[in-house]
Amino acid sequence: MPFDPGYDEDDDGGEPGQDRRFKDFDCPDCAANNPYDDGFGHGDEVRCYYCGQDYVADVSDSGRLKLKPL
Ligand SMILES: [Zn+2]
Known about the structure:
Strand content: 35-45%
Mean pLDDT: 88
Bound molecules: zinc ion
Radius of gyration: 11 Å
Shape: globular
Structural class: mainly beta
Low-confidence stretches: none
Distance between the termini: 23 Å
Number of strands: 5
């Protein structure tokens, strides 16, 4: 699975789409920022290091990340 480290979550230029990879996320539950050095993308499971909640990443066609609690 290719991972382009050049992608930045805060980059507003262009729409990478559902293939977009993320290097961190803000926990929807406790708002903690969780860095993910290995990156994650659509369908990957991530865990908040602070509150322990598991989420599955849901990336829309326009590259917007949503986290659904497991
Ligand atoms: Zn959390």
